[in-house]
Amino acid sequence: MLSLLLLGLLAQSARSSPAPRAAPSPVSVSLGGVTYINQGLVAFGLIPSNATESTGDTLGGLGSAVAVKPGTWRMQADGTYAGTLVVQPDRGFNVLTTIDYQARRHELSFVLSPYTGSAALSFADAQKTLKLTYLNTTLLSERNGTKTSGLDPQAIRAADPGFGAADPTADPQMPIASLNEPHLSVDAEGIVINADGTYWLSDEYGPYIYRFSAAGQLLQTIQPPEAILPLSKKGKLNFTSEDDPDTGRGANQGFEGLTLDPLTNTLYAILQSGTIQDGAAQFTRLLAYDVSQLDVAVPLIGEWVVPLPVSSGGKVRSTSELHFVSPGVFLTLARDGNGHGGSGTDVKYKHVDLFSIANATSIAHTDFDSAATPVAPKAKLAKGVTAAAYASFLDIADPAGLARFGLHTGDPDDRTLINAKWEGLALAPAGVPGAPDDYFLFVASDNDFISTQGVSLGVPFDAGEDVDSQFLVFRVTLPGAAAGVKAALGL
Ligand SMILES: *[C@@H]1O[C@H](CO)[C@@H](O)[C@H](O)[C@H]1NC(C)=O
Ligand SMILES: *[C@@H]1O[C@H](CO)[C@@H](O)[C@H](O)[C@H]1NC(C)=O
Ligand SMILES: *[C@@H]1O[C@H](CO)[C@@H](O)[C@H](O)[C@H]1NC(C)=O
Ligand SMILES: *[C@@H]1O[C@H](CO)[C@@H](O)[C@H](O)[C@H]1NC(C)=O
Ligand SMILES: *[C@@H]1O[C@H](CO)[C@@H](O)[C@H](O)[C@H]1NC(C)=O
After folding, report:
1. Of all protein residues, whose CA lies closest to atom 8 belonging to ligand 5?
2. With bands split at pLDDT 50, 70 and 90, how would you rate the model's confidence at 181?
3. Is-contact 323 426, C-beta < 8 A?
4. Has the keyword Metal-binding been applied to this entry (predicted)?
5. How many domains does the chain have?
6. pLDDT, tens digit, 9 for 90 and up, residues 63-97
7. By C-alpha distance, which of 87, 99, 140 is closest to 461?
8. Cα 443 to averaged position of ligand 4 atoms, centre (Å)
């Protein structure tokens, strides 16, 4: 479908536009009878690989999750846009081994000056289209102030008495670094900021969803159904990220994506790829929780199978993020691992795609929530289960778009090569008269803290190369998104 549309658009532009054609040229896709349009790349910015934050550590891993802070987005008189981005690093510089990195979030202020010209900007000038400035850091702790850790969870802390009852202050069995080091292990990947300043964070280890206070103290924990928990054959939890469990989420394949439908107060989390028992990594799961009441254990109200894209060679493009668009419709970030800081320069698939659960089957509270009953045994979806409808949408690594901002795919492997790991999505309204459905889509990358002048837990390190934290901004047309975006940004 997309390729037909693409061919149509290309044929059209070949017929009607004289060279040099105006850039960027829009690409559209239809899902559930609605047409969504990618208007192209309009801004690029970065935080240098050697930047440091208030604790003295390298300011890295920024794009694991991003959100525009409610109440900060504004259009300025000179036609630029400004606001604050909240960014969520994962578990620190862990290229060699996991480290005792306290989970944290940072605030960055930004000025966005969208560039729609066709002439190619230099790499230096391109960075003026999205200026990012570090503001501050909030460190995360448990309820009693004990700091969290990024260390691989090799042990388990018993559930609080009362877990499972309607008590949000009771915790399930928790991943901890070790019995001697009973710190909660967090590998943060998703963020949702609530209107009251508290926020939800999704993680890879549990995979759990935590709510923290604005000051960074743990308030609440959501444990997913048994089918998703990392269990041994004997049904014992083992949260390590060093080996796959026998059932549940794969190692390092936790809740990569988290988003809120602010109109119904539904919190959605997506697993990076299918569970171990669902053999095929292609069929992942989306979960929905009703978070309209926060002083109770929040109920699971929906669960759907989402089919991830697969390469012609059978490689599954796992999902790294999720963003609510309109009831039943989501953006997702599916990609390969190639690019700067990744495994080679041959970038094949880095997309922000769309999916809809409008006609999909909810499997919440069915046998598929148990570890014993896979929903996709031997890579085939179980009878009677309809998966979400998936549509390929926006190519982050489109070479023509990147070239306008001094960036590229392929060799050489330098700081103008597009980064490998894109993991954060945020939306804000373009506010352009006559284009009420147009938004800016922020896409952020995780640089894995790779720097030749790094600092980790106060100790200098040299990771052998420099990978900046790159941010891209696209203009997109998303009919139906207005109410959700406005509510999320407090507009
Ligand atoms: C859901 O089904 C209806 C009725 O068949 C159809 O009109 C609609 O396009 C479908 N939506 C999606 C997202 O597939
Ligand atoms: C980062 O590196 C650049 C180039 O080497 C240098 O000019 C800058 O001062 C460094 N910044 C920090 C915070 O060390
Ligand atoms: C971070 O900076 C913003 C903007 O100045 C401010 O509103 C916020 O309170 C600061 N947060 C912390 C933790 O200092
Ligand atoms: C903080 O709470 C955790 C979890 O209940 C507990 O294991 C730890 O011992 C507490 N630490 C302190 C200093 O009270
Ligand atoms: C978890 O599994 C690993 C091996 O995969 C093992 O070394 C470790 O002891 C297990 N942890 C627990 C708490 O059972």
Report:
1. 154
2. confident
3. yes
4. no
5. 1
6. 999 999 999 999 999 999 999 999 999 999 988 89
7. 99
8. 37
